[in-house]
Amino acid sequence: MKRMKAALLFLSLGAGAGMGCATTYDPYYYDTVYYDPYYGAYDAAWAYTWVDPVYGYWYYAIGNVQAMATVDPNTAASQLAANAATAFTPAGCVTATATGATVNYAFNNCTAPVSLTQISGNVELVLSDNQGQLAATATSNQLTINGEPYNLSLQIAGQPPDGDTRKVTVTSNSFSPNRFDSRTSQSTVTWTGGSGCITVDSTTQATKGGLNSTSTVSGYQRCDHQCPTAGMVQVDTTEGTFTTTFDGTNTARVTAPNDEIKTFNIDC
Questions:
Q1: Does the predicted TM-score (pTM) go above 0.70?
Q2: Using a CB cutoff of 8 Å and minimum separation of 24, what contacts does 118-123 make?
Q3: Are strands 211-223 and 165-172 parallel, antiparallel or unpaired?
Q4: CA-to-CA dists, residue 109 to 106, 120, 122, 146, 227, angstroms
């Protein structure tokens, strides 16, 4: 069978004599609970890496229309290109070139804040000024993250600060084709400037073969390359609802509609 439907599932509660047959679920449903917040953390990490260094450039003059009107995405792109050697490690792993409002990155096994590791390949980032608000789009070419091919396609929209809190909305079609056939996500990402910690709330639709799911991530919190310390994921499918919560450990326990549990190790 194409997805080897029962290959990753466990001994059922009804395996004993006289207890009947237990429900089994396609591994895709369990995987979605694990991978969707993981890819959501990637979306948030890219947003943090690109927005945090230039956030004050857009928003320091909130309330001063004349100053906001002078925002120059070309200058911001130059700032990000210059900042690449600090944002991505180890030294020399990235080449970043700004041309107008576009930054082109060539990665060779880089690490970036929050959750991004083993980044290789090419990414194009285009900045723009949307009536004084920060906007950015990013796409990739032959990109791999953490050892897997990755299709990066996202749009970032900045919002004015609330004290030290930075806030963006992210529309993403990013995913690894090893895991999903498609993924469309809308998320809100918040952080304290310079903290290396993000909070994500999102809704995602994803597909694999003839299967589909809707994921809701609530209060997902993660700091620089540490395990997620809080948050809940609920994945709704035609087979029922699959859930997990995060508690700072490197283990995610996914609960199926029939209360079966599958355990994943979080790479953190």
A1: yes
A2: 118/144, 118/145, 118/146, 118/147, 119/88, 119/143, 119/144, 119/145, 120/144, 121/150, 123/152
A3: unpaired
A4: 10, 5, 11, 9, 21
- Given the DSSP bridges, would you call strands 153-162 and 182-192 parallel, antiparallel or unpaired? unpaired
> Residue 52 is encoded by which pair of tokens?
């945090």
Residues 6+ apart with CB under 8 A from 232: 217, 218, 219, 243, 244, 245, 246
Within 13 Å, how many C-alpha atoms sit on residue 228's CB side? 29
Name 216's bridge partners.
Answer: 203, 234
* pLDDT at position 139: 98
Over 60: is that where the pLDDT of 253 sits?
yes
In sign, the C-alpha dihedral spanning 160, 162, 164, 169 is negative
What's the CA gap between 245 and 249, in Å, rounded? 10
Q: Which of 75, 184, 81, 177 is nearest to 123 (CA)?
A: 81
Q: Given pLDDT bands bounded at 50, 70 and 90, which one contains residue 162?
A: confident
Question: Rounded CA gap, 263 and 114, in Å?
Answer: 23
Task: Write the single-letter amino acid at 258.
Answer: N
Give CA–CA dist 88/231, Å, rounded: 27
- Name residue 3's amino acid: R
Length, in residues, of the chain = 268
The per-residue pLDDT of the chain, averaged, comes to 88
Q: Tell me: the pLDDT tens digits for 18-76?
A: 333 346 899 999 999 999 999 999 999 999 999 999 998 888 654 444 444 467 899 99
Chain-centroid distance, C-alpha 150: 12
What is the domain partition of the chain in residue ranges?
Answer: 27-265
Asked if 233 contacts 33 with a C-beta cutoff of 8 angstroms, the reply is: yes
